[in-house]
Specification:
Blueprint: H1 2-8, H2 15-18, E1 23-27, E2 30-33, E3 38-41, H3 44-47, H4 56-68, H5 80-92, H6 95-98, E4 101-105, H7 110-125, E5 130-133, H8 142-147, H9 152-155, E6 163-166, H10 180-196, E7 207-210, E8 213-214, E9 220-221, H11 224-236, E10 241-244, E11 268-271, E12 283-287, H12 306-321, H13 324-342, E13 349-355, E14 358-363, H14 380-392, E15 395-396, E16 398-400, E17 406-409, H15 417-435
Parallel strand pairs: 3-15, 5-6, 5-7, 7-10, 10-11
Antiparallel strand pairs: 1-2, 2-3, 4-12, 8-9, 11-12, 13-14, 14-17, 16-17
Helix pairs in contact: 4-12, 5-12, 10-11, 13-15, 14-15
Bound molecules: 4'-deoxy-4'-aminopyridoxal-5'-phosphate.
4'-deoxy-4'-aminopyridoxal-5'-phosphate (PMP) binds next to helix 7.
Pathway: Amine and polyamine biosynthesis; ectoine biosynthesis; L-ectoine from L-aspartate 4-semialdehyde: step 1/3
Cofactor: pyridoxal 5'-phosphate
Protein name: Diaminobutyrate--2-oxoglutarate transaminase
């Protein structure tokens, strides 16, 4: 399997290089490879599998579609499946946001929704520039990539959207060299200054896009106070705030949507991954005042796949019935307490960041000189060694962060306390062995 793939698939493939296994089956949080070896899947299809692999409710919902004979592709025509999906999504959102919301179905990926959201605010405001955050990730299509922080594939592509990058509070590696709360306070001041001062040379943008927790960027939660300041400033300046919850949405962070932690609502909400219950689907939800598009202004053949909508409706129902956002919060705390104990005995875990079931361990090199905050440099090599060791021991974790040195865990929301303990045991052993 692997030889064939490495010989014939595009050189852009990335997961297979770090996770060199061929999968045969998956159930819940466990996947098996073609040789029958089991792994805990803490990547969950990059966060799409909120309920794990082949959850009975999701499977049943898809089988119902199959049996009912509803056309699998309806363009943007409606169907009973689509009606049920829209109703469920609006009920799943906070009422204050859902009341006046409009839904735009986009292509299958998160990047498709980002593209649509940017077009929408450009059309609504008549302005063309955007603001985005350093370290943020919004996808790999041309427009979405222009909003994504400065990653390698971007550098060779020449001119892109006009995007102004703003500092994102990251206390551990604060862009201002400040720690703790000073980092988010200073970032907020800096942004306020950019927006207010005509001398700053900043043109008023069509919108500001932000993740509530930077996922690919290394699991960096925006402090609530910072997010609230951003909401207040964007309101004052008449700049639509686009919150990208492609990864953080649907219970992942301990609330249904991560913006709820900061008690704010966006103008535009960008959703994908878990919304399709593991099938490709993305939508943008926005305030009706922004619904300025002419009919056909945003089109595309694949918008709202019927099977994905059925799977998504079932996923939302299960999250709601089983209060999985609370479970995610509890399980996150359990992970955190394991890592707290781990840090007493290892020196290479510089920081632990947990927001529900978005978990990041920043791997550092304590043999190198520390920065002025006392933090050691990132150690991507050791992070990769730990990842490899985890995979050999039956645990799939991913790497992320600006230097590729953050071990990321995104287990399905249905992970049990026993599984959390098992996962931590494997991870702890791998870290200890790599430290020696
Ligand atoms: N936004 C965020 C916050 C993401 O995490 C991702 C994917 N990791 C995207 C957008 C892009 O989604 P996709 O890969 O489906 O295009």
């Amino acid at each position: 399997y692997l030889t064939y793939q490495s010989g014939r698939e595009s050189n852009a493939r990335s997961y297979p290089r770090r996770i060199p296994i061929a999968l045969r089956e998956g159930k819940g949080i466990v996947v098996k490879d073609v040789e029958g070896k089991s792994y805990y899947d803490c990547l969950s299809g990059a966060g799409t599998l909120a309920l794990g692999h082949h959850h009975p409710a999701v499977t049943e919902a898809m089988q119902d579609v199959w049996k009912s004979g509803v056309p699998l592709h309806t363009l943007d025509l409606t169907s009973p499946v689509k009606e049920a999906f829209m109703k469920e999504l609006l009920a799943f959102l906070p009422a204050s946001f859902a009341r006046d919301a409009r839904i735009q179905f986009c292509g299958p990926t998160g990047a498709d929704a980002v593209e649509a959201a940017v077009k929408l605010v450009k059309t609504a405001t008549g302005r063309t520039g955007m603001m985005s955050f350093q370290g943020g990730y919004h996808g790999m299509t041309h427009g979405a990539l222009s909003l994504t922080g400065n990653i390698k594939p971007k550098q060779a592509l020449g001119s892109m959207n006009d995007v102004q990058f703003l500092p994102y509070p990251y206390a551990y590696r604060c862009p201002f060299g400040l720690g703790g709360e000073c980092c988010d306070e200073t970032a907020a001041h800096y942004i306020a200054h950019m927006l207010q001062d005509p001398e700053s040379g900043v043109c008023k943008p069509a919108g500001m896009i932000m993740e509530m927790v930077q996922g690919e960027g290394g699991v960096i939660p925006a402090p609530n106070r910072f997010a609230a300041r951003i909401r207040q400033m964007t309101k004052e300046h008449g700049i639509p705030l686009l919150i990208d919850e492609v990864q953080t949405g649907f219970g992942r962070t301990g609330k249904r949507f991560a913006f709820e932690h900061a008690d704010i609502v966006p103008d535009v909400l960008i959703l994908s991954k878990a919304i399709g219950g593991s099938l490709p689907l993305s939508v943008v939800v926005y305030h009706k005042s922004l619904d300025v598009w002419q009919s056909g202004a945003h089109a595309g053949t694949f918008r709202g796949n019927v099977l994905a909508m059925a799977a998504g409706t079932a996923t939302m129902k299960v999250i709601q019935q089983e209060k999985l956002e609370h479970h995610a919060e509890q399980m996150g705390l359990r992970f955190e307490s394991h890592f707290h104990t781990l840090r007493q005995t290892v020196t290479s875990v510089g920081d632990v960041r947990v927001k529900g079931l978005m978990i990041g361990l920043e791997i550092v090199n304590p043999d190198q000189p520390a920065d002025r905050l006392g933090h050691f440099p990132a150690d991507p090599k050791m992070a990769a060694d730990i990842q490899k060791m985890c995979i050999e021991s039956g645990l799939i974790v991913e790497l992320g962060g600006r230097h590729g040195s953050v071990l990321r865990l995104l287990p399905p929301l249905i992970v049990t306390p026993e599984q959390v303990d098992d996962i931590c045991t494997i991870l702890e052993k791998a870290i200890h062995r790599c430290e020696r």
